[in-house]
Amino acid sequence: MLTAGAHANGAPAVVLTFDPHPANILGHGDVKLLTSPDERAALFASLGVDVVITERFTRELSSVSAFDFMSRLTKGLGLKHLLTGYDFALGKGREGNATRLTEIGRELGYTVEVVSALSDESGVISSTEIRKLIAVGNVAEAARLMGRSYALQGPVIRGDGRGRKIGVPTANIDYSSEKVVPALGIYAGWVYLANEKYMAAISIGINPTFTPDKQIPSVEAHILDFDEDIYGEELKIEFIARLRNELKFASVDALVEQIWKDVEETRTILKS
C-alpha cells in the first residue's frame, strides 16, 4: 500500500518510527521490543521502503502539539500523503489521532489514509498480543501472526565452555535487553551466520543443572553439523518451535541424553 502508492506517484516511500518506545519514556510500563531500530529498518527495506526515519522519543517531544509536529514533518519531507494505523496518535496528550491529523492535513496540504486493523478468527492482531505469545514461549503462533519468525541476534560471546566439555558446543549471544525474550526452555530454530543458514537446538535459560542461582537467562544455540570458532561473529537466532521446558537433571549423563533427543527432534521439525 505505502510503497505501491508512493512509487506510482513518483515519490519515495518513507516510514517514520520512534525509539525508545514512548511508554518506556513516559513511565507507562516496560515495553519490550519485537524489533530493534536496525531490524525494523532492514525489514522495511526488504519491503521496498526507500527511507526509514527513527525519531528519538523524549519527554520534550511528547509535549509538542500534533500541529507543530506535522508542520515540521510536512516542511522537512514535502509530505503529500500520510498513512496511519487505526489506533495511532501523536502529539501532546495523544491529540493527533486520525481525525485530528486529517484536519491538520487540510491546512498543511497533505491527505490521510487510515490503515484498518488486521484481524484473524481470534480478533485484532496486535503487537501486545504477539509480545505475550513470545513471552510464554509460543513462538509458532507469534510467527503466524507476524508473518515471520521471531529472532534475537548479537555477537557470539564466551560462556563457561561447559557445552564443549560435554560434547555439545553452543554459541552464546549477547542479545539486547530491550527485546522480548522467549520463555525459558528449549527451542528448534535456525541460525544465520555470514549469509549461511543452519539448523539449531536453542536453549534459553539459567542452566539449573549447573547454575541454579543465575538471574539473567542465557541464549545459546547448538548449531547442528557445525564445529567452527565463531567468537565475535554476529549471529541471528530464529525461533521456530518450542520443544520443552528447561529442566534440572540429576546427572550430566541424563542431561546429555536429553540434549541429543532435543537435537534429533529439532532436525525432524526443521526438515518438515
Written account of the structure:
With 272 residues, the chain is α+β, with helices and mostly antiparallel strands. It has two domains: 2-120, HUPs (Rossmann fold); 148-271, Elongation Factor Tu (Ef-tu), domain 3. It contains ten helices and twelve strands. The protein has helices at 2-8, 22-25, 37-46, 59-62, 66-77, 98-108, 127-135, 139-146, 162-165, 252-271, and strands at 14-19, 51-56, 81-85, 111-115, 119-120, 123-124, 151-157, 171-173, 185-193, 196-205, 218-223, 234-244. A six-stranded antiparallel beta barrel has the order 7-8-11-10-9-12. It has a two-stranded parallel ribbon with strand order 1-2. α5 (66-77) crosses α6 (98-108) and α7 (127-135) packs antiparallel against α8. The longest helix is centred in the last third of the chain and has 20 residues, at 252-271. It is elongated and about 70 Å long. It starts with a helix and ends with a helix. 19% of the residues are buried. The mean pLDDT is 93.
